[in-house]
Design goal:
The structure is a homotetramer.
Chain A (H helix, E strand, L loop, with lengths): L9 E4 L6 E2 L5 E2 L3 E8 L4 E8 L3 E3 L2 E3 L3 E7 L1 E4 L8 E4 L2 E5 L4 E2 L2 E3 L3 E8 L2 E4 L5 E5 L1 H11 L4
Antiparallel strand pairs in A: 2-4, 3-6, 4-5, 5-14, 6-13, 7-12, 7-15, 8-11, 8-14, 9-10, 9-13, 15-16
Chain lengths: ~150, ~150, ~150, ~150
């Protein structure tokens, strides 16, 4: 058996990190992000997102659970309150369960949220066919490119 | 906040459960399986597989980590020892890391292994395009159909 | 095998929930908290803490990893920068690794942080002897009592 | 943010590893074990145990969930079938839930089982006071000493 060492902690001064564009393949309206942490052992990742009014994320399935803290603005999840989903307002906390399908996640006003993910997001088309599986590894590759750490 | 209850334990008398065919979309050579447990909160699942000589699993990525105990026979993972992977022989234990890609998992003799999975298997084609994402939910739907619990 | 259902999401309007005192057995200086979520399957829990100037948490070990977002003020973890730990300033993100020992976590000014925990906190004395193991179940019992949901 | 690398897989030829005594502080009757894997990020660990007739484990709480495959013999969990628990017979699979308390785990005949643990075992006295918290780190320290890898 391989002897393993304890992990050490990480710290990121969030407001000192520049926002980067979140890919247009997965969002519209100019969403930006900062990747804060990845957990390669179980495939976790943590990020903060800035979402201008009228921006949205493309249709996806949470392959594992995710938890968010909405620190600013409003987020309509699964269509929002009007369509059986949730409309979150800052300061709001949400738990999105494993296998939750989000056909529409949109921001009626300028918003920011912090989110911890276990496992990837599976972006899908309307029929449920997979377009991309984006997890800690893909997130980190993108972030490294965007910040010149590649 | 929703108040939650503790989970209770489960027990399965494994040898009293009949083998079911594992889908040919994901395997060749007559692999059979028994689903033993699913963990809906984090997307874990546990199964035991019976793999005849010359059977194999289709190309896949482990979206989360998996651990196996090979109780009978031989399993060639990631091409086997000859190609930089592992050749497991009973009694063998293996840890397949999050994001491990298994282009070829084959059984040169009649074999059985027990495996715990966190997250789904992402079956892919040679170019890496997703064919199917098979996790606890899809596994349970199949098992329920096969055993008349649907 | 028991057939299981998918979990559903939760939402908490954080600013509409009243602060409750965090137990003095585990903190000094008037720390308050709101429990936001528990995950009984893996023993995860999520809370937000308000920590007045000069408050602190008692010595503890993180039995699993934890991630925090410091939304206000300053937090000195593992003695702070001056003693080899971290001094977090809002807006700061921290990852505390599995088995991290925090002999001193203190707040030099009024602060707030949100934290997701996997597994319990093991409160210990100076010699490392266990005083209490406080996880999702104990957290939920306390919260239910404090909010009349018991 | 620290850029992290993917983990690699591990393999252990289980039958080529010598059994070591499991500590008498936590068991009676000559239980032996082999540690197969540790997962430092989330505090998981995996081991196989050989339990002679009339051996037993001391009273403990599973701080996270655990899954076992009983490959030989019989195991009485939580008092066995006669007292509302489970009596497992090879080949048997069991899921022990997060926070399960096992006042008595005993083996009426020579038995072996393989188990994956998330989080530590909290050994307790009859009144529920903590005697020891034994997780991946403590397990690995012991194993490294027993096998000369310290």
């Amino acid at each position: 058996m391989d002897i393993k060492t304890k992990l050490r902690g990480d710290y990121v001064q969030v407001d000192a990190v520049a926002w980067q564009p979140f890919p247009e393949a997965f969002s519209t309206g100019g969403i930006k992000w900062k990747l804060l942490h990845v957990s390669p052992e179980v495939g976790g990742w943590t990020a903060i997102f800035a979402c201008p009014a009228d921006s949205s994320f493309a249709r996806h399935i949470h392959v594992g659970p995710g938890e968010y803290l909405l620190t600013k603005g409003k987020m309509e999840v699964r269509g929002g309150d009007q369509e059986g989903g949730s409309t979150a307002s800052a300061l709001g906390y949400g738990y999105e369960a494993c296998n939750a399908r989000h056909d529409q996640t949109s921001f009626p006003e300028d918003s920011e949220f912090y989110m911890t993910f276990l496992g990837p997001l599976q972006f899908i088309d309307e029929a449920g066919e997979t377009l991309a599986v984006v997890g800690w590894e893909q997130a980190q590759v993108l972030w490294a490119q965007q910040t010149g750490q590649g």
